[in-house]
Amino acid sequence: MEAKPFATATDRDSTPLPPREAWRRRMRDDVLDAAHAMAAEKGWDSVSLSQVAARAEVSRPTVYKEFGSRGGLSQALVHREAERFLAGVDHALRQPAPTASKALAAAVLYALQEARNNVLVASVVKAARAGTDSLLPYLTARSEPVVTGARLMVRAWCQAHFQQFDEARTDQAADVIVRLTLSHIVLPPPDHSPHESAEVITAAAIGALNRATLPDDPSKH
């Protein structure tokens, strides 16, 4: 099944669910809560589906039926965490600021600090530095739904706040913001504070917006 960008809270239907579906969603949340806690405690590589099922007080076949595999559970865990994370970034982007650049820098700083304080992200990054942790690919190589959801959100904000630029420029700026922020989360520069990293990322995004268009190379015609 193709993963989709995250939905916002307003996208979800508020109609009461049938009892069976309500139970399934509660069970899913319980399993993800258990997986989150165990990954933060001892690293995802040390956690089995049987252990997660036991902690969530459901059967192992139930977990397999819902998530398909350990990889499916890994993906769902990262995506739920990212959805909550992006909701916080969206809120940060909407806070009053003297200029759009300062609002962007504040939101990037929020993202970097929130990631640093997130026990699951911290556990993944720490383990990755030691050469382990199978959750890392879902933040990097297999992160397209995460990146797409973030890019859509940031692109909409850029289009609203940098209206003097065309969509191609705001799309490029949004991509720079998302990918550099993710890079700084996974591999934070040792000589940069979060404030400095936020300033660097913001400067790169503004540079992408303001960059001069190079003339065509006559040799290519």
Write structural notes for this entry.
The termini are far apart. The chain is 67% helix and 0% strand. It is globular. α7 (144-161) crosses α8. Residues 1-11 have low confidence and may be disordered. The chain is mainly α.
Topology (elements, then pairings):
Blueprint: H1 19-42, H2 49-56, H3 60-67, H4 70-93, H5 100-117, H6 119-129, H7 144-161, H8 167-186, H9 194-210
Rounded average pLDDT = 84
Give the overall silhouette.
globular
| Helix share bin | 55-70%
SSE series: HHHHHHHHH
Give the count of helical stretches: 9
Oligomer: single chain
Terminal Cα span: 43 Å
Question: Tell me about the biggest sheet?
Answer: none
Give start-end ranges of low-pLDDT stretches: 1-11
Total number of beta strands: 0
Strand content: under 5%
Describe the structure in brief:
With 221 residues, the protein is mainly alpha-helical.
Which descriptors apply to this entry?
mainly alpha
